[in-house]
Amino acid sequence: MQLPGCAVPLDDIFLPDELARRVPARPDHLREKLAVYDLAALMADHPDALLPRFVDIALELTGGVSAGLSLFERDPKPGVFRWHHVRGSLAAFEGVTTPRGHSPCGVTLDRGAPILAVHAERYYDWIAAASIEVPEVLLVPLRADPATLLGTLWIVADKVGHFDSGHARAMTELASFITVGLRIRDVEMKLQRAVAEQQTLLHEMSHRLKNVIAIADGMVWMTAMGAETPEAMATALSGRFQALSRATALVRRNPGTHPLPAMPELSEVLRMVLEPHDAAWPGGPSRISLSGPAILCDERAVSGIALVFNELATNAVKYGALSVPHGRVDITWSAMPDAVELSWVESGGPRIDGPPASESFGTTLMTQTVQSQFDGTFRREWRESGLAVSLTLARAMLSDEADEAA
Fold first, then answer.
1. InterPro entries this protein is in (predicted)?
2. Which is it for strands 328-335 and 288-291: parallel, antiparallel or unpaired?
């Protein structure tokens, strides 16, 4: 096969039978065994160093001038290879990507066996365009299993005829060892993430429960102060507890458990979250104002927004503007092409002399939520008149339809 514009056919580039014809030099079994021990030790103690050391060993055992790993990335489809741990003469190309369907690595994975390529720049225009000359390349596939592509180890020689079947054998054996190590590493990383998420969840649940109890306790006492009869108190408390329940449901970690009937607007989400806090002092006007354009929030965004603003409101009820009858909170937002900017400003509450001595878990939770879930920023300003918070949320993290509603 020869593509338009290619100088030579593909069959002149890849020589699948040439490796078998090349008689290997006397194998150095001790050196190969030591290499396996070296990799095994790294797998156990320093898994992050496993792949770069694998490339170094490949260069040492084969005598190539450059080597690296092309690891397969499925997105964007149909996927690309990204160069990692590049050593030797091509080290400057660390991090570049090459196409899955038009590269020596793609051919190697398709054939599922070590392969030799000679002057691949004659066929692949992107290699020639980078002014790369590759007299000979030994490519070895990395597969976790027949259906799972990991990538390719490639080693470049500075002359044709350098690699032999012994090199292919040794690299294939090490590659098989590495794929096992990669699978073990992936399992360990998933377990570590699961444990970390579980610990955060337990801490968060404890924190949420304490806040809910504190809010409920405040509601009881504040409602009792303004209620003329037990029946009036029961009625008021019932409505406020129901609002608190709706807000608490929005703050759950898995918003898919109880999906909302339709995609809500940002103002609806904020109103539902803030309603029980606004009702803490009976008989008075609303002390929380909302102002901003219509912005849709899908389920993935609702939970994070609810969590952040429930936390801000809880702190305002406990320590800030909502802890006194005449305090208030003004929330505004504006839509930019790529982001939504929100402002939370407290006033009329206790005087603030400065920031707290230490960060609470709630502050850490809000900051991490804004940064990780919304690719945004979270800033606080401790004004004498009250806390002011500025948030920036990426619009793409709120809803794909946000632009239509803005």
1. GAF, GAF-like_dom_sf, HATPase_C_sf, Sig_transdc_His_kinase_HWE
2. parallel
